[in-house]
Amino acid sequence: MRKGLFFIVSCLVIGLIFTPCAWSKTKTIKIGINAPMTGDIPKVGEGSKFAAEMWLEDIKAAGGLEVGGKKYPVEVVIEDNESKAESAVKVNTKMITEDEVLFIVGPQSSKQAIPAGEVANNYKTPMISPWSTNPDTTKDRPFVFRGCFLDPFQGPVLANFIKEEFGFSKAAVLYDVASDYPKGLAEFFKEAWEKVNGPGSVVAFESFTTKDADFSSQLTKIIRSGAEVLFTPQYYNEVALIVQQAHELGWNKPIVGSDSWGSAETVELCGKDCYGLFFSTHYAAAGAKGATKAFIDRYNKKHGYVPDDVAALTWDALGLVKASIQSCGKITGNVEKDRQCIRDAMANIKEFDGITGKMTFTEDGDPIKCAVLVRISDKGEYEFYKSVCP
Amino acid sequence: MVFFFQNLVNALQWGSFYALIALGYSMVYGILMLFNFAHGDIFMVGAYIGFGVATGITALASFGAIALPNWLILVLTIIISMFLTSFVGILVERLGYRPLREAPRASAAITGLMIGIILETGNLALLGAKRVRFPSLIETSTYNIGGVFVTNKKIMIVVVSLLLMFALHQFVRRTKWGMAMRAMAFDYVVVPLMGVPINTIAAMTFAIGSALAAAAGILFGVAYPVLDPYMGIVFGWKAFVAAILGGRGSILGATLAGFLLGFIEIFVAMIFPSTLRDLIAYSIILLILAFRPHGFFGEPYSARLRL
């Protein structure tokens, strides 16, 4: 025992002595993951973490990331932003200044991604948010990218879908006014809906604030307004409460959601109340083919459940990170130079074939890709219903 | 009219939670002159204990192949969880507040905040950040009474809360222990000199308050079945407002103020845009306090309050 300890210690000491020379030979590529491991939406953080771990596994199996003919070891730094805007900013600052990461993946929700993007852009560090759909995340920020479609696209997709599918002309919206993503999307939806159905066709536009649990007065108002469909772009923990309370108050018309519903936990918390409802999302796990299916099977085998859209988008975002580092072509060890080189390479990517679909990038760093409409089946599975492309 | 009655039903349910939690605040504040800011988190702990007990009973029943009706499981859950959570309250009093009984009140108040944070993060460490779905013990049946939708859950929540409040009222008014508590509220320096055991009364106050919070937690889980470690914070603050609004140590006051708070919140959202709900609701309460600074049933006092 003692000998073993002595051996380990001496190895570590020797390692320390040689570390500076080791650095000059093989520099580690550090990637930061800024994810909500605790707080309101921990399932989102879990998906991000698992996807990142799988990605790292692949890199390690290949003996490192090959850049310009040389293999570099990769390290992934995962930090918790507690699903709070201020913590996401702190996490980004720490990863950029202390951990010296070359690329940040995350934060996932717009509430954190918008302020955190500001930090990344100021420090000239490339950042890609896999899941943030609010336009402000990447707007006028050359260093910030994203891996998903935008709300100005998602809003009209949903409005048109409801019109075509049900033929309704009066809609109600219930959203969290204190969170960037639901607030932004609620407004884009309202705009698109009124374009199709005329002004005043959103008959109830009700809101609440984060952490509220009782929506009875808002829902009573919505029911009285004579709306034919309820649109609620909320996260999974609130979806369960909203849907159940609506049903208890006598609402039996459709409720439609957005990509924030796509978490693996929505149905678990919501139960039978959510069966038969529709939402828009980034990919549908049921009926997937090719690389998407390979990813889903591998994830499912390892973690025991079908990955949600966050995990798939994080996987694609990391794929983009890898592609941009490789096309940069060299790692100098000078963090600032490398970051600039990687950001330029990332901005030059015109097309990417990911597991959440083919994407082409605009000048703002936003991908153009298809949205999927999913129906929650009577067994609680997410069934592909149709796909809408721009 | 239907719209009004629907909101009345909603407000009754929402107010029950405020009232139940406000009682715990009010008792501790009335008797020991303490702001027990951990009370909102004891409500959270109660809900989680209720979740554990309900899951445990269901598992045991299916293991022993005993067909327990669901309402019985719920009743058992409420009773057992109230009992267990009262020990959490006693523990909080023993470890957190008793050592600080002679300390300045501000130190005791921040103790509550710290215990609250310990309970939240302790839960986080124990169970992880994952949301928990409270088991749906009773099947929801919705009754349509002339356009007003009432569920059996809503009726049960309001009835159980009122029963508990009535029981507490009887306890404080009619038993010897209740009399000791009232005497302590009158003067907690002199009354112990008369031979009333302050430590027992303090522990009992915490135990009863925590048991009520546990009942509130379980009823909350029945109505809003998503539990998370931070669910008690804002809820606790608002119930604290109700406790102060009701008047120091007044059971009737805390109950009425709890329901009033629920009514104000629901009806403000009914008339005004829901975005402005808390802004308007709490401005109204500020206004009420300006005219009745001692709350509804509080007596004016000054010299003995060591704040």
Keywords:
heterodimer; A: 390 residues; alpha/beta; Rossmann fold; 2 domains; 7-stranded mixed sheet; 5-stranded parallel sheet; 12 helices; 46% helix; B: 307 residues; mainly alpha; ABC transporter involved in vitamin B12 uptake, BtuC; two-stranded antiparallel sheet; globular
Structure description:
Chain A has helices at residues 2-25, 42-61, 85-97, 110-122, 151-166, 180-197, 216-224, 236-248, 266-270, 290-303, 309-328, 335-348, and strands at 29-35, 65-67, 70-72, 74-80, 103-105, 127-129, 144-146, 171-176, 202-208, 229-231, 255-257, 278-281, 351-354, 357-361, 367-368, 371-376, 382-388. Chain A is an alpha/beta fold. In chain A, the strands form four sheets. A seven-stranded mixed sheet of chain A has the order 9-8-10-11-12-16-17, with helices on both faces. In chain A, strands 4-1-5-6-7 form a five-stranded parallel sheet, with helices on both faces. A three-stranded antiparallel sheet of chain A has the order 13-14-15, with helices on one face. In chain A, helix 3 packs parallel to helix 4 (110-122). The longest helix of chain A has 24 residues, at 2-25. Chain B has a single domain (2-291), classed as ABC transporter involved in vitamin B12 uptake, BtuC, CATH 1.10.3470. Chain B has a two-stranded antiparallel sheet with strand order 1-4. The longest helix of chain B has 31 residues, at 2-32. At the A-B interface, helix 2, strand 9, helix 7 and helix 8 of A face helix 1 and helix 9 of B.
